[in-house]
Amino acid sequence: MKQSTGDRIKGGFHEVKGKVKEEVGQATNSPDLEAEGQAEKIGGKIQKKIGQVEEKLGK
Question: Euclidean distance between the first and final Cα of the chain, in Å?
Fold first, then answer.
């Protein structure tokens, strides 16, 4: 598997995981968990975007 594909898959996973954490944090009134989820979701989006850029560049 190419590095770009791996980055896109891992990024998507972290994006979904972060969304779940964010929702659980909201439901349980836990601002720390909600913030952690938001950070992980953003990190996942960035990793996913890096994979897309690498794919376009042919890496």
Answer: 12
Are 4 and 58 spatial neighbours (Cβ–Cβ below 8 Å)? no
Give CA–CA dist 15/10, Å, rounded: 8
Express each pLDDT in 7-46 by its tens digit: 889 999 999 999 999 999 999 999 999 999 999 999 999 9
Of the candidates 32, 31, 14, 34, the one whose C-alpha atom is nearest the C-alpha of residue 23 is: 34
The whole-chain average pLDDT of the chain stands at: 92
* Per-residue confidence (pLDDT) for residue 59, from 0 to 100: 61
For residue 6, give both structure tokens.
Answer: 């791996």
